[in-house]
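Support request, please re-run this one:
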Amino acid sequence: MKKILSLIIGIAALTVALPSCEAVLDQPSPSTFDGSVVFANYDLAESTVFGITEVFCEVNSYRGRFLPWYGFNTDIEWYNSHKPGDGKSDIAAYNCLPNNAQLNLANGPYVLMYTGIERANLVIEGLREHGNVEADANMAYLLGEALTLRAMIYYDLIKAWGDVPARFSSLDSETIYAAKENRDVIFKQILGDLEEAFAYLPYPGKTAATSRTDRINKAFAQGLYARIALAASGYAIRPDDGKVGTGDLGTIRLSSDPELSKEALYPKALGFLKEAIASGSASLESDYAGMWYNLNNFNNLTAGPGFETLYVIPFGDGRGRWNFTFAIASEGAGISGGVSRGGDAGPVPTMFFKYDSQDVRRDVTCVNYKWTKAGDIEPAGISKWYFGKYRFEWMDKSPYTGGNDDGVKPVVMRYSDILLMAAEMENELNGPSADAKKWLQAVRERAYKGYEDKAEAYVASLVSKEDFFNAIVEERALEFCGEFLRKGDLIRWNMLKSKLDETKAQLKDLRDLAGDYSFLSGDIWYQLAADEKSIVIWGLDRNQTGAPEGEWEKKAAYVNADYLKKPAEGMGEERIDGIYTQDPEQHMFWPIFNDHISNSQGYLVNDYGY
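Re-run finished. Output below.
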């Protein structure tokens, strides 16, 4: 069990991952233990589980490479700059080549994800052999947690790289190198693992561990099963059967494995979602803005009835680059520690106009202002929108003071996703039934707080299976913008390129005040809001015509000013067409990077035309 010893010896580093990891440091010297001791002792075994999540916090893992770079460009989210040849812009624009400077790293996310998988394999093997999981519910929980974490990491590997090596036992000298495996093999394994894990995991709020969103619970595991089932049964680019890892170009298609069809997976996944809903262990929070305020203040760690967040990336309070990357832009005001931070990505400029003015999600999600170096707030320009879900100015509990890490714990799954996945699957199986409508309406009514009758009438109007599916496509955009689920959704629906092309046309109409945007005058007015942490903009809403009354500052020709001044960086042809510079269908997945190819002893070969 020398590998177990090496894993435990590294536990001191885990304080960056979870506050509860500090208890690990009170244990006897781990170098004196072997696996039979480690996995027979709850505290030591728990420490090895923390070793799995520690990889999320590594510099070039989820913290600084995977989370900041996976998920855009889509029809609702994009990288806020376009500089061809810049590694970051190329990732967003589907031109991520095997030598990409941001990701072609010996210690990049691909390698570190497999580090997490190896640790999970060791934990799973150790607990099965020594943990007495049949009789000890606490040890069984740790096994369920490890199985779920391994499934999550594998799902993330597949959604980024497509087909990857399958490793479900710890490494030895004969298995250290491996070729890519058909992703269907991995999908079936992790779906089976999650079914096993359900028996070991309590629902949110049932134990001390599952009352925290940085620990795994049954509702999250059931939601993860559904998320994986949707991907496994959906569309994606795939090499021909038997040609994975041979350089095959691939085609957009469904799996040919009948076990991964919608007919096989949807009834099971929907059943698990119904169990999660019936458990009452989570619910929609009534205050949409308040929920995101809590995220920025690290107050999204409580799980259980009355709370919506099911799982977060367990960054410590001084780790993670979430607001650093995605918060409303600050050019160096005190609000961001005196350094320029945030705003790397944001809603596509047309996204704001897809919301009804009575939808509370609009002004939480789509923000068109920034903080200047002087600490003032001013309009950002029509081409630069920011995710209002993430704000330095909401970090009241632990204000950001600069540096590369802010401690914000990004959400992996919310209860609203449980409801919308259930509605989508129910509609696919049975059409827009009462249950499907009930689940969609719950999400819609929260969005239309104070106008619930409008949400009810909208859902009631959905009478066909096609209409209801299209409503789900729209609702997931409105609900999850800035949470980076959209790319995976568009891929599995086979809508990636068509939605990007549709968005390009809409952006050009917005720039030219044409089509759906012809109601805009081009001018806007703005004033400081009552909270003095935001501004109110007049002139972008369809109901706002002419100049407003009162003290407002005017910006003339605002909508097309960026286009006239900076055609490449603002709303010019190059910027808009740069939403993708290579075929997004051919390059929906990242390549295996050169460093990993060259160190694979010839086992790894890129597919998809790379």
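The radius of gyration is 24 Å. The first helix runs from residue 2 to 9.
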